[in-house]
């Protein structure tokens, strides 16, 4: 499908250009060369002696015309006369084949000082019995031309067309063939990246010690295959790295090659998608052939899910066919090489659930290494790696940064370090201070500040109350993490303000009451808007999404609803995409159960919405203080917030009890 369309488009353009060239160009050329003159003007010129040569057929008179100053005409005519004489003598009786007008023109031009004095002219022939007499009288060479339709058509049109068709076929064949680009006819030259030394070592990858341990064995094998051969040990052919985006899969692969000091052949699965049919398979073949000549080495297929998708999975069309061919070739090659050849195939993916099971069969990618988002110590180590070449101020506390970046990937952390350096540079600082680092966290977390996005007065007020609402509800929910910062500076794409809550320690589980509180906090902004302004705004859309997502998960996945009970009704299909709205597969359920689920979810949300409104109403004066302060300062720190929020619910009750 894709291939056909490509060819069709190519052919259309090809022929548009071709026809323009074949028919347009000769016309244009003639136009430029010849001067169109009327018959009467021709006769006039003839009488003046300006016509030097004439060829005619039934319809047209063509010839060479002198258009320069009349004084020089006589000399030119005598020179031409002399030239003709000479030719006639040299040729004798064996008449020279009649030269073309263009040929004659250039001969004559050699006899003049001024090239532009001479031109080819053309005139429509008129019924004129006296023409021949006049021609004789003016002493001009003239001859009739048999108008040869055949010759003209053959040379002017048919041959170019035949040539053009031939070229077309060649190019089309080239397009269908492996490795050929639009115009490259010939052997495929697949683009494969080879690095002699990747320059990356294990020490550059932090926070995944277990994975590194597993790969060390592979390094050992590549360095010293003999040891394993002697023991008859078989090293795995393929290692698959699994993990969410940005956890260092690509980095770790390159580090593996760097540690083993072997060449690194890499190719990315997504590159295969854009290719003509057959190219992907040819590339895979080339890749393995090249690698096998350079053992020991590592072949790395990044983003293998792009080609390794489950075969026959739904879609139809050319792209699919191409992918399957590539995948088949990959499987063939993997089965084809000896285990101890010294080629290790490495692949990475963040979508293991779509991989074709054939890839995971023994003898293929039988070893799998999972790279997960780093834990707090891992994050600190990664931050350390990325601050190695940066001047850090003495007040830097990487541990605290690691604490407040739960869920961040290695790539995010690398990004934070870099942003901090950029911030420091922008402020003319020689060192990266903790403040820059914290700003960088925020920037990576919520997107860059957008000071240029000017909110109107009313909107700013609304945003201030909204954020104050979140913060205040968080403050009064016993199981919500404490508020660390509130800001009403617009950031990133959507956020007009945000409230940052930081847990005291890293959390891997959440209890039911924590989840409930989280829903309540999410709805806090909306509740504040409703109470202060009487109605809600579209700004709470994202909050609603978060709240709904949590409520649904509680009911359908965590078995936290008393009504439904401990039953799983949906599961995540991708273990690594832990974002709201990630693909979920819903278990088949009866309509009654479905409506019960809806009821449960709605009830949870309604309850928490009411709870948030109660909290806001009860602490309305604190809310106004916080919002007023925010409108002035735009940013509020934890201490300031605590001061304005007053006493905690729990504390107050305790006080009453006492
Ligand atoms: P993936 O391939 O898993 O999506 P990458 O390997 O491309 O992730 O990581 C992107 C960048 O993030 C790396 O170049 C590196 O700078 C940084 N990074 C990711 N994980 C780590 C880690 N564990 N240690 C150090 N840096 C990391
Ligand atoms: Mg990658
Ligand atoms: Zn909000």
Structural class: alpha/beta
CATH homologous superfamily annotation of the largest domain = Peptidase M41
Based on CA atoms alone, the radius of gyration comes out at 41 Å
What's the structural domain tally?
5
Mean pLDDT across residues:
82
Known CATH architecture of the largest domain = Up-down Bundle
| Percentage of β-strand residues | 5-15%
Strand order, main sheet: write it out: 6-8-9-10-7-11
Q: Please describe the biggest sheet, giving its number of strands, its sense, and whether it closes into a barrel.
A: 6 strands, mixed
CATH fold-level assignment of the largest domain: Methane Monooxygenase Hydroxylase, Chain G, domain 1
Overall body shape: elongated
In terms of quaternary structure, the protein is: single chain
How many helices in DSSP terms? Answer: 24
Per CATH, the class of the largest domain reads: Mainly Alpha
In the predicted model, the low-confidence regions spanning at least 5 consecutive residues are 178-190, 314-318, 652-658
Compute the number of strand runs: 16
What is the first-to-last residue Cα distance? Answer: 79 Å
Helix content: 40-55%
Bound molecules: adenosine-5'-diphosphate, magnesium ion, zinc ion
């Amino acid at each position: 499908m894709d291939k056909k369309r490509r060819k069709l488009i190519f052919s259309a353009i090809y022929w548009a250009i071709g026809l323009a060239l074949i028919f347009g160009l000769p016309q244009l050329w003639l136009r430029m060369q010849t001067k169109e003159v009327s018959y009467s003007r021709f006769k006039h010129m003839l009488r003046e002696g300006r016509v030097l040569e004439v060829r005619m057929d039934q319809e047209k008179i063509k010839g060479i015309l002198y258009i320069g100053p009349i004084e020089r005409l006589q000399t030119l005519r005598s020179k031409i006369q002399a030239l003709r004489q000479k030719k006639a003598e040299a040729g004798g009786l064996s008449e020279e084949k009649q030269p073309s007008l263009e040929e004659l023109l250039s001969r004559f031009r050699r006899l003049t000082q001024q090239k532009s004095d001479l031109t080819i002219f053309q005139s429509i022939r008129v019924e004129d019995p006296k023409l021949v007499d006049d021609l004789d009288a003016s002493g001009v060479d003239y001859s009739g031309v048999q108008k040869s339709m055949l010759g003209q058509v053959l040379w002017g049109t048919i041959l170019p067309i035949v040539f053009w068709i031939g070229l077309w076929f060649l190019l089309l064949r080239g397009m269908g063939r492996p490795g050929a680009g639009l115009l490259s006819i010939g052997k495929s030259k697949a683009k494969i990246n080879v690095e002699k030394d990747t320059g990356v070592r294990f020490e550059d990858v932090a926070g995944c010690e277990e994975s590194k341990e597993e790969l060390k064995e592979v390094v050992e094998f590549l360095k010293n295959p003999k040891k394993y051969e002697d023991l008859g040990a078989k090293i795995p052919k393929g290692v698959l790295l699994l993990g969410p985006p940005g956890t260092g899969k690509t980095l770790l692969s390159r580090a593996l090659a760097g540690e083993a000091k072997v060449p690194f052949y890499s190719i990315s699965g997504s590159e295969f998608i854009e290719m003509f049919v057959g190219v992907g398979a040819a590339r895979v073949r080339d890749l393995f052939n090249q690698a096998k000549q350079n053992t020991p080495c590592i072949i790395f297929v990044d983003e293998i899910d792009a080609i390794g998708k489950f075969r026959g999975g739904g879609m139809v069309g050319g792209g699919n066919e191409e992918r399957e061919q590539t995948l088949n070739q990959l499987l063939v090659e993997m089965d084809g090489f000896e285990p101890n050849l010294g080629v290790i195939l490495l692949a990475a993916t963040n979508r293991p659930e779509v991989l074709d099971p054939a890839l995971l069969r023994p003898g293929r990618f039988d070893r799998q290494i999972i790279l997960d988002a780093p834990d707090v110590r891992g994050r600190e180590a990664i931050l350390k790696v990325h601050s190695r070449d940066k001047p850090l101020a003495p007040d830097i506390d990487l541990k605290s940064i690691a604490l407040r970046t739960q869920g961040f990937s290695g790539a995010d952390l690398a990004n934070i370090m870099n942003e901090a350096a950029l911030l420091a540079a922008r402020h003319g600082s020689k060192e990266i201070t903790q403040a820059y680092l914290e700003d960088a966290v925020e920037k990576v977390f919520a997107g860059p500040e957008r000071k240029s996005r000017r909110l109107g007065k009313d909107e700013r007020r609304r945003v201030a109350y909204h954020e104050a609402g979140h913060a205040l509800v968080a403050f009064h929910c016993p199981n919500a993490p404490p508020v660390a910062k509130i800001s009403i500076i617009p950031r990133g794409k959507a956020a007009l303000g945000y409230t940052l809550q930081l847990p005291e320690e890293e959390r891997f589980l959440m209890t039911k009451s924590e989840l409930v509180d989280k829903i309540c906090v999410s709805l806090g902004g909306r509740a504040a808007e409703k109470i202060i302004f009487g109605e809600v705004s579209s700004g709470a859309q994202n909050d609603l999404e978060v709240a709904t997502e949590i409520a649904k998960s509680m009911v359908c996945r965590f078995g936290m609803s008393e009504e439904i009970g401990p039953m799983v009704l949906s599961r995540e299909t991708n273990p690594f995409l832990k974002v709201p709205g990630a693909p979920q597969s819903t278990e088949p359920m009866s309509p009654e159960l479905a409506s019960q689920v809806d009821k449960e979810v709605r009830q949870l949300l309604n309850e928490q919405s009411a709870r948030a409104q109660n909290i806001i109403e009860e602490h309305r004066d604190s809310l106004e203080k916080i919002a007023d302060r925010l409108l002035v300062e735009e940013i509020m720190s934890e201490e300031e917030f605590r001061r304005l929020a007053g006493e905690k619910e729990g504390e107050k009750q305790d006080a009453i009890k006492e």
